[in-house]
Task: structure prediction
Amino acid sequence: MPLDRVPLDRDLVVRTAIRLADADGLATVSMRLVAARLGTSTMSLYQHVSSKDDLVTAMVDTVLAEHRPPPPHATGWRALLEHEAREEWALYQRHPWSLTALATSRPPLGRALLETVDRFLSALALDHRTALPVYLLVSGYVQGTALMAVAEFEATRDTGVSSHSWWHARLGRLGGVVGSNRYPWLTELAAADPPTTADLDGWFDFGLHRVLDGIASFLEPDEPGEPVSAHNTDEPGSSTPDRRG
Result:
């Protein structure tokens, strides 16, 4: 069968690209390679996606559609923000390449991404100048922590060596250094089991709760009825609100 006669549609092209990115990273995805995987010509793909940028936008939209709605008991800004943060964290576990696409000042502005951001901002019920920095704070924390998870996924994929094995070997080589009493805290740490990817989930939980605690201190000021504004929180003479979980 001639290459151009292979039946194609946009969804098949996009999901093939996602499988490639899941396996080898976003940088490896090209129109040529997607076409090769589909057994067709590169030019035939342009009937379904107009460019590489269009393809990446469609890929992000597709994986963002995996988002689960909050459970019925998740009410109030904190529960909703925590749900959104955990869904974003889970996205980067399932599709590590999506962090590369989204952790940028110029993300692919497809419908699903716009809906995700709007859903988050709506949960805050604040003016946009106040809500947007809160969104960036939470998403920035998730993405920053996900950098370690994605880096570990890629290192394990490329070397075949797990995080546990890597740390075990390094701590063994550094045994004399950390046991010299020059670094007492590191000596105690080295005596414990090497970190694993499961530890990262625990660190993520710890940090997320601290971020939400900080937002609570901002959104729930000491004085009832005090207006919340992103523009006057650091003005001289403003009070420092208590931290409340």
